[in-house]
Write a sequence for this structure.
């Protein structure tokens, strides 16, 4: 039989090891994705999307992109054409697995005019599965 000390040791070891990979919150996932966006790091940016990622336009509900290949192609081109691209969060709301960001974006495709968007991210199992975009 195991002694009480041995049981406590193994129990504390198990707890410590299970905390090594603490699950990221939806907000942390979205922030890591945004950080990669601001660095124009396509690999880091893509790492936070589910293979089944879907993007929608809020105004008409139409799907604008689906799947990693389409998202990669679109954002790779955006990053290449936008050397000064940077998004600042004006306001963030976190509700369950949804993160709602009001973003102020500069340098998009070399434009001088900033763009404001509201993005609604849905996160499951540490991956972004859906983004709905609101435009002015």
């Amino acid at each position: 039989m195991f002694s009480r000390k041995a049981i406590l040791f193994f129990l504390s070891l198990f707890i410590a090891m299970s905390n090594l990979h603490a699950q990221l919150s939806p907000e942390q996932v979205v922030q890591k994705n945004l950080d990669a966006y601001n660095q124009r790091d396509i690999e880091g940016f893509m790492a936070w999307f589910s293979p089944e990622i879907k993007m929608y336009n809020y105004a008409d509900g139409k799907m604008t992109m689906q799947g990693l290949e389409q998202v990669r192609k679109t954002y790779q081109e955006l990053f290449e054409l936008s050397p000064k691209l940077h998004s600042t969060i004006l306001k963030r709301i976190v509700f369950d697995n949804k993160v709602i960001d009001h973003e102020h974006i500069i340098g998009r495709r070399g434009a001088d005019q900033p763009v404001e968007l509201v993005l609604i991210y849905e996160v499951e199992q540490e991956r972004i599965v859906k983004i709905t975009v609101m435009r002015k």
Q: What stands out?
A: DSSP finds four helices and six strands in the chain. The beta strands are 49-57, 63-66, 86-95, 98-106, 115-124, 127-135. The chain has a mean pLDDT of 91.
